[in-house]
Design brief:
Strand content: under 5%
Number of helices: 9
Number of strands: 0
Structural class: mainly alpha
Helix content: over 70%
Distance between the termini: 26 Å
Number of domains: 1
Radius of gyration: 18 Å
Length: 199
């Protein structure tokens, strides 16, 4: 838990995604993004338990496919936020993303990041002791503990980011600039994921 908490407190793509969502669309969107990311982690955990993460580690083509799909999705979100920012005022005529859409985007963003699967593959087995029972059950338990810790950290980030940006809610020009900045963050994350080579 200490190692997992230390890793979860380290800023990364998930934390930036939650902070950007919360700052541009409010605390509820940030919290739902954190839950979406958590759901994505559960998919990676299930994949690890089923051995699919090992396949990603051994088959460069599979890794590259998932990596590029994740990068494309982040770039899509970033370009949309950069060129089509929506007013955040309460009386805005354009509809904000529904919480269901925010949840799905957080989940898909996490699922399409192969580094999460490879992280689980590299991190969790270090703490498995075959003498203590089923390795699969231990990996699932350790993954759930790690995911729970990460979800709490991301929820805290969502609350802090929403409070920091609350004064923007009735300032349309500033809110559009914040959304464009969010778009730039997503584009940067997507580009970084696209250009990252497997070590």
């Amino acid at each position: 838990m200490s190692a997992g908490l230390a890793l979860n407190l380290t800023p990364g793509p998930d934390m930036l995604y939650v902070a950007s969502r919360s700052a541009s669309e409010g605390r509820a969107s940030g919290l739902v993004s954190a839950l979406g990311i958590s759901a994505g982690c559960l998919v990676h955990l299930a994949a690890l338990a089923l051995g699919l993460a090992a396949l990603l580690a051994r088959v460069p083509e599979a890794y590259a496919t998932v990596r590029l799909a994740g990068a494309a999705y982040l770039l899509y979100l970033g370009v949309r936020a950069l060129f089509r920012p929506q007013p955040l005022a309460a009386n805005a005529s354009l509809a904000r993303a529904s919480l269901g859409a925010v949840f799905r985007q957080g989940m898909v963003t996490n699922i399409l990041n192969p580094k999460v699967a490879l992280f689980f593959l590299a991190f969790l087995p270090q703490f498995v002791d075959p003498a203590r029972g089923s390795p699969v059950a231990q990996i699932v338990l350790l993954g759930l503990l790690f995911n729970g810790s990460g979800t709490l950290v991301n929820a805290g980030v969502a609350v802090l980011a929403s409070r920091a940006s609350a004064w923007l809610r009735n300032r349309d020009a500033e809110s559009r600039r914040l959304q464009r900045f969010t778009g730039i963050v997503f584009i940067a994350l997507g580009a970084r994921l696209a250009w990252t080579r497997r070590s």
